[in-house]
Predict the structure.
Amino acid sequence: MRRPGQYAVMLALFVAASAFAQAPVPGFLERAITQAEGAVTVTVAVPSDQESQDFFGVPLYKRKIQPVWLEISNDSDATITFLPLGLDPQYFTPIESAFLGAGGAGKTDASMRKFFFDRKIDMYIDPGEKRTGFMFTALQQGTKSFNVDVYTDDEQLINFTFFVPVPGLRLDHSDVDWETLYPAAEIRELDKDALIEALAAMPCCTTDKKAEGTGDPLNLVVIGDVDDVYYAFIRAGWDETEVVSVSSLAKMGKSFVSGSEYRYSPVSGLYVFGRPQDVAFQKARANINERNHLRLWMSPLRYEGVPVWIGQISRDIGVRLTAKTITTHKVDPDVDETREYLVENLAYSQALARLGYVEGVGPATIGEPRGNLTGDPYFTDGKRVVLWISSTPRDFGDIQDLDWGAQPTR
């Protein structure tokens, strides 16, 4: 059954689609990703900052608005409903996006508002039909993660999860060749007992490029394939980090002076295995001075055929710019609290399959703390948490808690 007003919307979409078909295919559609389940097929694409401005004529990214293009095909014999709230609970309406993108309601005209409105995606897809259009979402650069939820007439909810690379940021892990990181002869498959022993024997801490001095404690182990680790942290709300460049330094300096948020701020290089971190993630808070961040290095160890990563996590409570190191972070000395924060974070985001603890850096008390490379003190119970990443959503109650004899003492 047609919904009220749907004929008018269909006519507008038909006109827009006809005009769209005659124009050159936008570059972002060449990066489209498709998933299918049963009779429903969903294709998505995310324009970059420049592509978005070229298509819509206004700087949407500057207003923290990111268009997402969708195509939903319904090959069933019943109407299905697309649920926009599942994609982004804070989404913008088309006309709101036109207003904000243009810099205010007084700077738009009827043709611009209609252009945005005509390109929205319809919620209802009748049997045998296809709908295309945009949603206007909160900005997420690097890798855009979102769900597309479709509700069927027989009260079934179909969920599609997408991770879409968006051009524009040069990310720290982009140049890592995971296949050749270690020669085949160095890869070691371990059983449980050998794994516990090997993890406890890992270096205590990060170091600098010359392998001089001891830095932040290596208090984190992650077990998971590259894509599973990558997507788990993004799904849990962690942002990727940009490489150090003229552009990123300029953005960092601007954020430092203004006290504003910089979600993708570069993370200074710390060293394990003779190289800087393979990948870094961060959770920005109110401003650049406050964030949780972590670094991971893939080790040559494998457990049940899956890579084992050693890492470091800490909470920034301040940052300063220096000529020597570019950024120097002031860490919260209670590094165990941030370690446990990550356990809860991955558990609540359904990304955790198993966890355990091994002996690690050794204890340091609040009264007799250790220091990192920049002189910040830290105290710890000395344990390393071991986190198995789940490739599929895992309920909180289904997480396996392994007692390896090194549980936290507090």
